[in-house]
Amino acid sequence: MLSSNIEYFKPATIKEALELFYFLKANNKRPIYYSGGTEILTLGRLNLVETDSLIDIKDLKECQLLEVNQDYLITGASITLTEIEEKNLFPLLSKTSMEIADRTARNKITLGGNLCGQIFYREAILPFLLCDSQVIVAGYNGLEAFPIEQIFNQTLQLQDGQLLIQLVTEKKYMNLPNMSIKIRQQWDTGYPLLTIASIKLDNQLRFAFSGLCPFPFRSKQMETELNNTNSSVEERIQKAIQFIPGEILDDVEGSKEYRLFVLKNTLEKIMIEMEGR
Questions:
Q1: CA atoms within 13 A of residue 61's CA, in its CB half-sphere
Q2: Which H or E element spans position 274?
């Protein structure tokens, strides 16, 4: 449960934010970086988040960037999902983000909050996995850039105190043929059953998934099978599902069997449409 005596800090620079975090940790505090705050409030009520110090990073200028700079799109960690949708600089990211929760929530949910949160869907990561984006992180060593496949393994592998600043994506990916399909068992909002995003690059399809396993992922082994045009679409899908990199979810949103049924049908729909582009 969230303490009624939470300390609140609003650093003016990345350096100040990092120094605050490490100072508070050294004094036996439990600091959390804060931007939108939706998950902190939601999970705090369920005793799944404990903190006594909030470090507000939403106004750090580096985290507020959303712009095309030369050959790259820079997306700051404090940009809200609504801003991403409205500016629409990265259409696939807009499509994938626009159905996360409802609009009121998206006005507060930030990109960084979605990617670093405990709720396992984290759909906003899918376009960045597909586009080989770079992740900019601040920590003891200053600002560092990591290939996303190096630093994202089920979750962003941040060390204690490290701060997600930006994601950087090459412009060449922005307008590639793409699809993003979110399937819900019922209702128009709330948690999805399954989300699949796809792009087509050099006549090859890439796929990323959320809601299939208890973590979002892109599997190059699955892609190899799905792009093997020597076999039928049905055969390719059947071979690809053997490389799903974890246990398939079986929960209140849908059984394992139902998820597999939806996965096969959705993949078939995406492949038929995307291969025709």
A1: 2
A2: helix 256-275
Cβ atoms within 10 Å of 148's Cβ, excluding its own: 20
Q: How far apart are CA 236 and CA 213, in angstroms?
A: 20
DSSP state of 117: S
Helix (H) or strand (E) holding 100: none
Give the residue carrying structure tokens 């979605």. Answer: 114
Beta strands 163-170 and 66-69: pairing type? unpaired
Measured CA to CA in angstroms, residue 244 lies from 217, 220, 233 at distances of: 9, 10, 17
Give the H/E segment covering residue 82: helix 81-87
Domains (range + CATH), the chain: 7-56 (3.30.43), 61-173 (3.30.465.10), 178-275 (3.30.390.50)
Measure the CA–CA gap between 208 and 219, rounded to whole angstroms.
7
Fill in the amino acid letter for 77. Answer: A
- Residues 124-142 have pLDDT tens digits of 999 999 999 999 999 989 9
User: Cβ-count burial of 134 within 10 angstroms (0-12 exposed, 13-18 middle, 19+ buried)?
Assistant: buried
Beta-strand ranges (E) seen in 106-258 are 134-139, 142-147, 152-153, 155-156, 163-170, 178-183, 194-201, 204-210
pLDDT for 243-267, tens place per residue? Answer: 999 999 999 889 999 999 999 999 9
Q: How many whole angstroms separate alpha carbon 104 and alpha carbon 98?
A: 11
